[in-house]
């Protein structure tokens, strides 16, 4: 890990992915952050177990939770727009009619971009389901 950050006059090695996330967040003036890879000693199973037990409280106190899936790639903007469309639901349209419309060829690229988004490395981490649900 060639990237490091300084915390309380200590140098801490971080992954390139975390470095990218921090750069992105600081560009948007996000200043108060709790980052599990930094705040939890990943080498200490006992501490990690205790901290995972506290994550529910940590996430419930958060005003905003940001998940870093990586830089824009694989038409991730299209995938996020499609996710918003799915989350909005059919509205006044019949649900079956709406679902069938989403299966039409014009939406195939949306599905492919959504599939690529779901295959990013973040989803491979052990406790992402807990993080996502609690957030």
Automatic annotation (TrEMBL):
Pfam name, any one: HET
InterPro entries tied to this protein: HET, HetReg/Transcr_Mod
Stretches assigned to the Heterokaryon incompatibility domain: 3-131
Protein name: Heterokaryon incompatibility domain-containing protein
